[in-house]
UniProtKB/TrEMBL annotation:
This is 5-amino-6-(5-phospho-D-ribitylamino)uracil phosphatase YcsE. It comes from Neobacillus rhizosphaerae. InterPro entries: Cof, HAD-like_sf, HAD-SF_hydro_IIB, HAD_sf. It holds the Pfam family Hydrolase_3. Keywords: Hydrolase. Its EC number is 3.1.3.104. One of its GO terms (molecular function) is 5-amino-6-(5-phosphoribitylamino)uracil phosphatase activity. It is an enzyme of class 3 (hydrolase). PANTHER family: HAD SUPERFAMILY HYDROLASE-LIKE, TYPE 3 (PTHR10000:SF8), PHOSPHOSERINE PHOSPHATASE (PTHR10000).
Length: 270
């Protein structure tokens, strides 16, 4: 089978635990691109932050940001945003359960709490030019958040070290059935427009690229990756993925620390 597109999650998949791309993964992806395979990073990170990592891989790498709610390809702009009412519902539940909420667009983050000085977005901002930088706002009230979202908020990630409170808030939000709610870690959940997912965005990208599902590889490690793993002709779960994700994948590779992405690509592209 000649694969034409590889869609890869970032955190817990492409990146190691230091949030960098291991050299072996870089090598494997560059070899794939040299052989005509397109690469897309499909991530919960905002588009601008994810785009920073292109400097390690090449400008031809595609980015699908904020959990499958935003990408640009040529003249195509794919953008699924949260309404003011949806933002208010998420904000109020986060406050009720004393959780941190980051409302994210392709170039903006609005937080209900202080964004730490050592946050990765602030660190990456130092490497970006003014047009690429993320606009970060912290300690935002609900009113400020609503006044400044400007129809650009694609998702919200809600998180805390109190995983019990996170789960309670997640279940409460899910029961309203007004949003797509998934987790990328036990300490968080992410809320997007109903009907959006990484899988839906990847299908749209495949249509734009004229790529069939059987010509697609998707690699991920968590609940928010499942939709694209199931859509792909070859869906690969990381070794560090939860068991329920592994059971629904076509193949399970090594973990993110041991360059599971490179090992999988070396196996299936050669």
């Amino acid at each position: 089978m000649k694969y034409k597109l590889i869609c890869i999650d970032m955190d817990g998949t492409l990146l190691n635990n230091k949030f960098t791309i291991p050299d072996e993964n870089i090598r494997a992806l560059k070899e794939a691109m040299e052989n005509g395979v397109k690469i897309a990073l499909v991530t919960g990170r905002p588009f601008n932050i994810a785009s920073y990592f292109k400097r390690f891989l090449g400008d031809d790498v595609l980015i699908v940001g904020t959990n499958g709610t935003y990408y640009k390809y040529g003249e195509v702009l794919y953008k699924k945003t949260l309404s003011a009412d949806e933002i208010e519902s998420i904000y109020n539940i986060a406050e009720k359960h004393k959780l941190t909420a980051y409302f994210k667009g392709h170039n903006i983050v609005l937080s209900n709490e202080k964004i730490p000085e050592n946050h990765q977005y602030k660190m990456i901002n130092t490497y970006l030019n003014d047009e690429e930088k993320m606009n970060l706002f912290d300690n935002c009230s609900l009113q400020f958040t609503l006044e400044n979202h400007n129809e650009n908020i694609c998702k919200c990630i809600v998180f805390s070290d109190d995983t019990e409170a996170v789960n309670k808030a997640k279940q409460e939000l899910k029961q309203y059935n007004i949003l797509e709610v998934v987790s990328s870690h036990v300490n968080n959940f992410e809320a997007m427009q109903l009907g959006t997912s990484k899988g839906v965005a990847v299908k749209s990208l495949c249509d734009s690229l004229n790529v069939k599902p059987e010509e697609l590889i998707c690699i991920g490690d968590n609940e928010n990756d499942l939709s694209m793993i199931q859509f792909a002709g070859l869906g690969i779960a990381m070794g560090n993925a939860p068991e329920e994700i592994k059971l629904q994948a076509d193949y399970v590779t090594d973990n993110n620390v041991n360059c599971g992405v490179a090992k999988a690509l070396d196996l299936f592209l050669k």
